[in-house]
Amino acid sequence: MRTNILTAAAVSFLTMTAVAQKDQVKNAEDALEDGNYAEAKAQLQVAEANLSELNDRWQENFYLYKGKAYMGNGTDASSEDMKTAAEALKKASEMGSEEATEALANLKNNLIQSAIADQNKQEYASAADKLYTSYELSKTDTIYLYYAANNLVQAEDYDKAVEYLETLNELDYDGSGKAYTAVNVESGERENLGSQQQMDLMIKTEQYKEPKVEDIPSKKGDIAQLIARIYISQKQYDKAIAAMDKAKSTNPDDMSLLQAEANMYYQMGEKDKAREILEEVAEKDPSDPSTFNNIGLMYAEINDNEKAVEFYEKALAKDPEFNQARVNMIAAKLAAEKKIIDEMNGLGMSKADNERYEELDAERKELYKTVLPDLEKAMEVDPENKDIIQTAMNLYSNLGNQERVEELKAKM
């Protein structure tokens, strides 16, 4: 009999506990309606100790209210509270709460907007934490893991950054796609509207205009390059090469990965290897003028200016407006001036020396004449570039064309 009495008492006690739990959950709901988030949290913390005593319906309500309590008004919750709210709402949503599903979507948007605000304030670690939470809420949204990793790089938390980046590599994350954008009539800003359907819909409302569909390039090269950069900074060269080789093994035709590999070897000081890879890229995909420009720069570094000019010209053949290559080409051509001037400065005062001086001076002026058409074109493409104008003024001055010097001075 005692056993029966004790069992009955225990059952009675458990029933009373469940009733108390329900009261606390209900009190939390009332506190939320009053906007008293601190009180709601306090009630829920008490209820959580014996949460298993509640049935599924009340547990669903508990997680819904916990999510709402920690989310607060959606603007001033801490990163940690947002994570707690997200986990609670996710559980409530999984248990069937439509309200939790909607609240979770709002919270996710708040997390992302808050992360953007943190980025703008250069609070990169906080931004990364929020973006990673967004990724954890929906593992299909891999883009947030990528952004979290980038913020960790900015925060110089390289160990965690490389962990995220390696995860992206394992997931074979690509990140390419389409961006459906349009200009917000009210703000004048171009916004990403997510999909063709949504973009078409917003254009019809006349709240947006100038729709545009743009290609989003693959991020594999960026990811491999970031991993390599981190390992190189830690002098873990074997890991950098292994990460790059792994990325290339699954995407052997990805030009961005080859570009990243070239950059990796360049950072490691293996510049000949970097140049060889870039020349392979140029052969496989000759459409990108920046590849030819970069090869030219590498030849210029070893003072092979003739070869450098050859590649700058190839870049300009692909894009005549690519002024960076034109400026680099001008610099490579003018590099010949140093040898001429050094010899001129080393001459004495003899008749033979004076004659040689005149020969060298004529050679120098001839060099200027060959470069001036390139400078004129550079000024045409970028008329506001003062460095280009000043270089042209110096050359015209040395050639005795003071009229052109005055014209360019007026531009300055």
Automatic annotation (TrEMBL):
Keywords: Repeat, TPR repeat
InterPro entries: CellSynth/LPSAsmb/PSIAsmb (IPR051012), TPR-like_helical_dom_sf (IPR011990), TPR_rpt (IPR019734)
TPR repeat feature ranges: 221-254, 255-288, 289-322
Pfam families registered for this protein in UniProt: TPR_1, TPR_19
Protein name: Tetratricopeptide repeat protein
Record organism: Christiangramia lutea
Species classification: Bacteria, Pseudomonadati, Bacteroidota, Flavobacteriia, Flavobacteriales
